[in-house]
Each structure stands twice: as structure tokens, then as C-alpha cells.
Design a protein that fits this description.
Structural class: alpha/beta
Radius of gyration: 15 Å
Number of helices: 5
Helix content: 25-40%
Shape: globular
Largest sheet: 4 strands, mixed
Order of helices and strands: EHEHEEHHH
Number of strands: 4
Strand content: 15-25%
Oligomer: single chain
Strand order of the largest sheet: 1-2-4-3
Distance between the termini: 26 Å
């Protein structure tokens, strides 16, 4: 069992597929063997993503996904939990990426969500990034593609 909180940046219109995020993330977390862990996912625009990237990474440009690892543990009436952190995804860059990779928004959104979860699980890809037409080499990106293959029939964006 895991907990997922999905929120929209204030002033950004909620997409029609917004309610489909939590069920997909639960399946992705199960595929990654997360148990009794909690994550928060923020959907925002490029302007806000640029602010986050500038503030926390000192990079004054937008990006597609950012992960903020936490690791705090807490206990409530349901037992012990680990708050693994926050994921921010730019809806603007999501569409740009989908076009670049010749993918639909559904596939690209799933990639960004799994990518964020892997970072919250302590994984990193260094300087390597997914490139159009090129198979990944590093452990994180290879695992990302394996998880995405196992979830290929899942639909978020209908």
C-alpha cells in the first residue's frame, strides 16, 4: 500500500486525465517494490518549473520533471510510513517532449512519472538522458524503460 497526492499549480487548468494519475502511480510504485511510501506530484507550467529549477538547481531554464527526495518517516493510525518526496512535472514541456520523441502524451507522461519515482528511490542517470532512437545504458534509464514496458497498456491520457 502506498499514498499518492496529486495537485495542480494554482491557476493552471486541470487536464481531463487528472484523475487517472493516482491509479497509474500506484501501479508504478508496486512495480518498483515501494511499500508504505508516500509521494506528492505537482503538475505546473514552464514558468513555475523554471522558478523551481532556478531555486533548487541553480539552472535558469525550465525542465520536464524534477524530483525532491525527502525520506522522512512518520506513524499514523495505519502504521509507519516513509515520505519519499515530491515530483514536479511541467505540462508545457510534456507536450514538447512527446513531439520530440514521436510519442503521444500518454507515453511521455508515464515516462516522466516513472523517471521521477526512480530519482526518489535514490537512483541517478548522471549526464545520460533518454535520446530519440538510442537505447539507454545506465542502470536507472534501463530500469525505467523496463518498468514502462511492463506498464505499456496502462492509460492516463485517454
Amino acid at each position: 500500500m502506498n499514498r499518492i497526492s496529486v495537485i495542480m499549480q494554482e491557476g493552471v487548468e486541470e487536464p481531463s486525465w487528472f484523475a487517472n494519475i493516482e491509479p497509474f502511480v500506484k501501479k508504478a510504485m508496486e512495480a518498483l517494490n515501494f511499500d508504505r511510501e508516500e509521494v506528492s506530484i505537482l503538475f505546473c507550467n514552464d514558468t513555475y518549473m523554471q522558478e523551481l529549477n532556478s531555486t533548487y538547481r541553480k539552472i535558469d531554464s525550465t525542465t520536464d520533471v524534477l524530483s525532491f527526495e525527502d525520506g522522512d518517516e512518520y506513524e499514523d493510525e495505519e502504521g509507519k510510513w516513509k515520505y519519499i518526496g515530491d515530483i514536479a512535472i511541467s505540462l508545457d514541456t510534456l507536450s514538447v517532449n512527446a513531439q520530440y520523441f514521436d510519442e503521444n502524451n500518454n507515453s511521455e507522461l508515464k515516462r516522466l512519472l516513472v523517471h521521477g519515482l526512480l530519482h526518489l528511490n535514490g537512483m541517478d542517470h548522471g549526464e545520460e538522458h533518454i535520446e530519440k532512437g538510442k537505447a539507454p545504458v545506465c542502470q536507472m534509464l534501463v530500469l525505467q524503460e523496463k518498468i514502462l514496458e511492463s506498464l505499456k497498456d496502462e492509460k492516463i491520457v485517454l
